[in-house]
Design a protein that fits this description.
By secondary structure, the protein is α+β, with helices and mostly antiparallel strands. It has two domains: 188 residues, Fructose-1,6-Bisphosphatase, Chain A, domain 1, CATH 3.30.540.10; 144 residues, D-Maltodextrin-Binding Protein, domain 2. Helices cover 31% and strands 22% of the residues. It has nine helices and 15 strands. The strands form three sheets. The chain has an eight-stranded mixed sheet with strand order 4-3-5-6-7-8-9-10, with helices on both faces. A five-stranded mixed sheet has the order 12-11-13-15-14, sandwiched between helices. A two-stranded antiparallel sheet has the order 1-2. The longest helix has 22 residues. It is globular. The C terminus is likely disordered. It binds 6-O-phosphono-alpha-D-fructofuranose (P6P). The site of 6-O-phosphono-alpha-D-fructofuranose has 10 residues, from helix 6. The site of 6-O-phosphono-alpha-D-fructofuranose (P6P) has 10 residues, from helix 6.
């Protein structure tokens, strides 16, 4: 099929043909997620016209106001995967507990975690938002999934990706064979290959962080950001420009395309979130998987995001992701200036290498 008409379904199928043990279950699960993305994209496009903007009138497990489109996206994703026999258990940012399949449905060999609509507080201002997903093999012995299947280190992911609803809708995924981007052609309702083999540009262009939190950053993070801004007299560098949308999928997507680093460090702003705002399982780990596939790196400021063994499906983590050198520089500044924080953090979060790695 010519590249200009390479649909995501055909791309996944061709990739899976190279895997002898592939049975088509993974391929069909990815089809399900692509279809869910198309349905959510259609609803997003109509958001301004229907009364589906704004708050749904309740809060989610994170204590955040649920947007009507959050609820729609969450229900669309679960409904899309609950019948197909591809997954055994689902975890969603919108639900406190893992979601088993209906009793009369067959359980599959994968488990799925997703943030149905990350950045949704930006919807009413028409900023780009996104769905993030992460897929693992089920490792528990029972017929259907258990929570431990959802608490694997990010390095064990089979695949990960996101769908960004912006000036155009794109689905970006990686399954161990590079990162590939597909743009939705609404005229034919297909995701067409538009960005094959995505890698971070060698020359970083932007740094991306919520500058408004500066007074809450640790000494190491503050010094690091000042270094990026060219303010470090003892270690001068050409300043990077700053971009920040406040929607991680959009900020990550721009970082992947333009080069640089996106950060959401731990800060002292909210004592209930001492180790960062972003969630490990369905935000940081899937994007970390993509970042490494694209030649970059993702860290919690101490070590690789992909080496963290979660203890909770809603566990939060600091995140530095993008250009490998820039992320490793952030680790160096933190190691040098934030040793006390590092000691406390490591007591709390098992950051050791995944056993056997
Ligand atoms: P802040 C959106 O709510 C989100 O979870 C991420 O998408 C985004 O990177 C971050 O929070 C923005 O947080 O504190 O800068 O508004």
């Amino acid at each position: 099929m010519p590249q200009r008409l390479m649909t995501i379904e055909r791309h996944i199928l061709e990739q899976q043909r190279a895997i002898p043990e592939a049975t088509g279950v993974f391929t069909n699960l990815m089809y399900d997620l692509a279809l869910a993305g198309k349905i959510i994209a259609r609803q997003m496009a109509r958001a301004g016209l229907n009364d589906i903007l704004g708050r749904a009138g309740n809060t989610n497990v994170q204590g955040e106001d649920q947007q009507k489109l959050d609820v729609f996206a969450d229900e669309t994703l679960y409904d899309m995967v609950k019948d197909g026999g591809r997954v055994a258990l689902v975890a969603s940012e919108e639900h406190e507990h893992p979601m088993p399949l209906p009793n009369d449905k067959p359980c599959g060999k994968y488990v799925l975690l997703y943030d149905p609509l990350d950045g949704s507080s930006n919807i009413d201002s028409n900023a780009s938002v996104g769905t993030i997903f992460s897929i693992y093999r089920k490792i528990s012995d029972g017929p259907c999934g258990e929570t431990k299947d959802l608490l694997q280190a990010g390095a064990e992911q089979v695949a990960a990706g996101y769908i960004i609803y912006g000036s155009s809708t794109m689905m970006v995924y990686g399954a161990g064979f590079g990162v590939h981007g597909f743009t939705l052609d609404p005229n034919i309702g297909e995701f067409l290959l538009s960005h094959p083999n995505m890698t971070f540009p060698k020359k970083p262009k932007y740094y991306s962080i919520n500058q408004g939190n500066e007074i809450y950053w640790s000494e190491g993070v503050r010094r690091y950001v000042h270094w990026l801004q060219g303010k470090a007299a003892d270690n001068p560098r050409k300043p990077l420009s700053q971009r920040y949308i406040g929607s991680m999928v959009a900020d990550f997507h721009r970082t992947l395309l333009e080069g640089g680093i996106f950060m959401y460090p731990a800060d002292s702003k909210d004592p209930s979130k001492p180790f960062g705002k972003l969630r490990l399982g369905y935000e940081a780990a899937p994007l970390a998987f993509l970042a490494e596939e694209a030649g970059g790196y993702a860290s919690d400021g101490v070590g690789s995001i992909l080496d963290i063994k979660p203890t909770s499906i809603h566990q939060r983590t600091p995140l530095f992701i993008g250009d490998r050198d820039l992320v490793q520089q952030a680790e160096a500044f933190i190691q040098l200036h934030d040793q006390e924080w590092v000691d406390t953090y490591q007591d709390e979060v098992s950051n050791e290498l995944v056993p056997g790695k």
